[in-house]
Amino acid sequence: MLANLLGVRCVIVKNGRRICGTGGCLANAPLHQNKSYFEFKIQSTGIWGIGVATQKVNLNQIPLGQDVHSLVMRNDGALYHNNEEKNRLLGNNLPQEGDVLGITYDHVELNVYLNGKKILDCQFSDFYHIPPTGFEKILFEQQIS
């Protein structure tokens, strides 16, 4: 794990399978393929967040989701981006210790699954509403191999 992928008070243990401490951590593999899936098992209660972020995110500014560089579901069931609550799980769907959260991401849509059941959608294009004046959908660069 590279140092620039961890918050200063963040520690990775269990052969890279568990994050502890305070701060964020980026995976060491970017999401290049068209459809990506990853998951997290909640080992203990506490304050946490999972989602996607660019390498420009400040991993010491927690909780993540406070800027345009991260989209994060927090332990209270709220999905945050740019310090705005974008969606929220109902109280009876909040993840608990032992639950597994899965994320699918296809550069257009992010979906969150709780123990294999889809619980939340996030759209990156094909919006339900027209974006506010001056805003448009996220443009992704194409990597040429």
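Above is the first protein from milestone M3; the second protein from the same milestone is given next.
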Amino acid sequence: MSTHRIALIASARYPIREPFPGGLEAHTWQLASRLRERGHEVTVFGGAGSDPALDVREMAPLPPLSAHARSDVSMPAEWFLAEHHAYLSLMLELAAPDAPYDVVHNNSLHYLPVAMGPALARPVLTTLHTPPTPWLESAIRLPRTVATPRFAAVSRTTAEQWRGLVPDVRVVRNGVDTAAWTPGPGGGTPVWSGRIVPEKGPVESIRAARAAGTGLRLAGPRPDRDWYDAEVAPLLGDGIEWVGHLDHTALARLVGSASVAVVAPCWDEPYGLVVAEALACGTPIAGFARGALPELLDDTCGVLAAPGDVDGLAVAIRSAARLDRAAVRRRAEGFCSVRAMVSGYEDLYDELAA
């Protein structure tokens, strides 16, 4: 294995620090930290307020706009314009002939690193963290007159969704630190964790837990408070509670204490880092068979219901609680460790730098 100078492009909008806003920020923190441990020189480009230990280079903020620009009828949302300016400035910086990197790894969801990547003198790797989106599809379809971009996908499911546009995509599954996410005693109230948003299925999970008579503890950020207050808050009580937005240490204790982790995506979840975290804690999964969940789980570590089937999910919660927690932990060690993830990216860096 060679060591490399890596420019790692992260989210410009959200800080990379605990408690993490979402799985993408947690993944970026883990990847950058482990690559440095293995001798690589990693420069992370990300949002303001990130973990000081990660030494993030903050992307350029949006400069003040004139009154004429702000009054223009085409003025987009300010967060959108700020992201556009941040990534545009960064890609122009990375396009300099003397940019001190061997590889640029785009770990963001933004279209500009994909669209402008071929203009760089260094090879660019983009990790596909989502199903196809209009912005990314548009960027990928641009004519290529120079270097062909390279892509990785976080699951076989995601790779297949992109196969029509990106036939040569390497699967590098997300991983978790199995030394930090350690087996817990289990037996406690089932847990749901993640961003509390409609597509993650917290409402369906609550209804299933009520039908199963088990209760449910929810942990995670509430990015849309209006939706949370209208749809989730009224369902709390009688054994259903939100316990806050926890850092990884507290969350690992919570997940390890639970009898079951409920994962009920209402969209085609590309991976589901919460699945890997629960498996590492020895906590079996009850979930919907949607997105990458059928790929990540087998009958030793999870029970799946048909997508959207709340009654079936209630049955899955009761059934999953009977699975062997040692077998669940073994699945994490063999299938979704951070060591395997980092090795997969190192292989790609070696190929690109060569």
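Note on the second protein: The radius of gyration is 21 Å.
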